[in-house]
């Protein structure tokens, strides 16, 4: 029986949900998936670090009282010694789920680099490293014979990146457009129902959808990162966030939301990237008042949707959760499954000189 030891970097909503999944459903997952999962290290800004090569008792760390930290545990330290833990842990896979930094991607990019350099696979839901250093990190992973997986960076657990990578061979993708942020979509729906913006945002935070700073959700920088990822990975572009024009929800007033409802329209924050006739790619994020019969107008709550414009199939649309702790933890599990499925190929690639 194979076993993967994990190091969890960041122990907030998503990595806690993964720990709960392993703790509560570990035996069932082992028999279904053919491998065992064990957590051997955890770091968090607020909790410090914990390293136990024989496996951490997840029920004990999940039961920690607010304000407590890892110091009293064997192998515990009140400081989040990220670099030391990532480089020295016995883990096979580093699971990066700290805050997304939409400006320079740090310190998550460094976390991923340290893990790959020390021969560990990485799975992350953090959009910073993928959007801002994706090519460099993929190359680093290849150099070290390990994988850099990041399904959860777009549409949380809804597997659109792997779908596009694996199932669209032979198609030419002309563009990709969609609702790519769960929080803003949820907030727009709640404002249509009469809630104030702050109340709607507070609900999204409580439900685990929002970024640590929800401005990134509302003002489009989260979608900007996702558009960069889609443009680069699906359209083969080489965009940075500076190439993606951005307007957020503050450009739409409550009165405009009510007026759109009267006109049979619904505001949605739309991310778009499309290939032009000259081969260049144009990308944007902006609120759009869609007519109710538009396919994206009915996508509500934290559900997201992506429409791929292809030459041979026309439009292929996928809809599913775009945010949520458990949904995003599933993305991490799906990455581990992909690492497990590809392990023979990796051994071959690493020895193939
Ligand atoms: N919650 C969601 O629905 C989704 C989240 N994501 C991404 O997944 C990541 C994690 O999300 P959540 O768990 O919801 O966020 P969260 O805010 O609940 O948890 C992040 C955790 O990381 C810790 N942290 C921050 N900086 C750190 C550092 N330098 N070293 C150690 N720990 C650090 C924080 O103390 C916090 O406990 C974020 O990058 C987010 O953008 C992606 C898809 C969906
Ligand atoms: N805050 C993000 C989480 C997923 O990326 C969102 O609301 O979509």
Automatic annotation (TrEMBL):
Belongs to the homoserine dehydrogenase family. NADPH binds at residue 127. L-homoserine binds at residue 211. GO terms for biological process: methionine biosynthetic process; threonine biosynthetic process. Keywords: Amino-acid biosynthesis, Methionine biosynthesis, NADP, Oxidoreductase, Sodium, Threonine biosynthesis. Pathway: Amino-acid biosynthesis; L-methionine biosynthesis via de novo pathway; L-homoserine from L-aspartate: step 3/3; Amino-acid biosynthesis; L-threonine biosynthesis; L-threonine from L-aspartate: step 3/5. Residues 10-151 form the Aspartate/homoserine dehydrogenase NAD-binding domain. Its EC number is 1.1.1.3. GO terms for molecular function: homoserine dehydrogenase activity; NADP binding. InterPro entries: Asp/hSer_DH_NAD-bd, HDH_cat, HDH_CS, HDH_short, NAD(P)-bd_dom_sf. Pfam families: Homoserine_dh, NAD_binding_3. Its cofactor is a metal cation. This is Homoserine dehydrogenase. Residues 159-337 form the Homoserine dehydrogenase catalytic domain. It catalyses: L-homoserine + NADP(+) = L-aspartate 4-semialdehyde + NADPH + H(+); L-homoserine + NAD(+) = L-aspartate 4-semialdehyde + NADH + H(+). PANTHER family: HOMOSERINE DEHYDROGENASE. Coiled coil: none annotated. Catalyzes the conversion of L-aspartate-beta-semialdehyde (L-Asa) to L-homoserine (L-Hse), the third step in the biosynthesis of threonine and methionine from aspartate. NCBIfam families: PRK06270.1, PRK06349.1. It comes from Agromyces tardus. The active site is at residue 226.
């Amino acid at each position: 029986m194979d076993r993967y030891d994990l190091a969890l970097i960041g122990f907030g909503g998503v990595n806690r949900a993964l720990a709960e999944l392993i703790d509560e459903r570990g035996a069932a997952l082992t028999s279904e998936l053919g491998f065992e999962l064990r957590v051997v290290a955890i770091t968090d800004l607020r909790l410090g670090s914990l390293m136990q090569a024989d496996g951490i008792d997840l029920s004990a760390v999940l039961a920690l009282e607010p304000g407590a930290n890892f110091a009293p545990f064997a192998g515990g330290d009140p400081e989040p010694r990220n670099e030391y833990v990532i480089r020295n842990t016995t883990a096979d896979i580093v699971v990066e789920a700290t805050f997304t930094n939409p400006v320079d991607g740090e310190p998550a990019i460094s976390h991923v680099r340290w893990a790959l350099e020390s021969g560990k696979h990485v799975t992350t839901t953090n959009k910073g490293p993928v959007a801002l250093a994706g090519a460099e990190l993929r190359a680093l992973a290849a150099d070290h014979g390990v994988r850099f997986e990041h399904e959860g960076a777009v549409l949380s657990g809804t597997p659109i990146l792997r779908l596009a990578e694996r199932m669209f061979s032979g198609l030419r993708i002309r563009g990709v457009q969609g609702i790519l942020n769960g929080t803003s979509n949820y907030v727009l729906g709640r404002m249509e129902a009469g809630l104030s913006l702050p109340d709607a945002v507070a609900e999204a935070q409580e439900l685990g959808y929002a970024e640590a700073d929800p401005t990134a959700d509302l003002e489009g920088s989260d979608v900007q990162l996702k558009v960069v990822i889609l443009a680069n990975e699906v359209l083969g572009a080489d965009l940075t966030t500076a190439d993606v024009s951005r307007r957020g929800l503050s450009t739409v007033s409550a009165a405009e939301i009510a007026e759109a409802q009267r006109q049979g329209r619904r505001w949605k924050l739309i991310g778009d990237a499309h290939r032009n006739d000259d081969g260049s790619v144009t990308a944007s994020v902006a609120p759009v008042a869609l007519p109710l019969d538009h396919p994206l107008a009915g996508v509500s709550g934290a559900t997201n949707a992506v429409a791929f414009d292809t030459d041979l199939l026309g439009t292929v649309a996928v809809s599913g959760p775009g945010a949520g702790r458990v949904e995003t933890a599933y993305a991490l599990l799906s990455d581990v499954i992909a690492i497990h499925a590809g392990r023979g190929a990796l051994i071959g690639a690493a020895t193939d000189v």
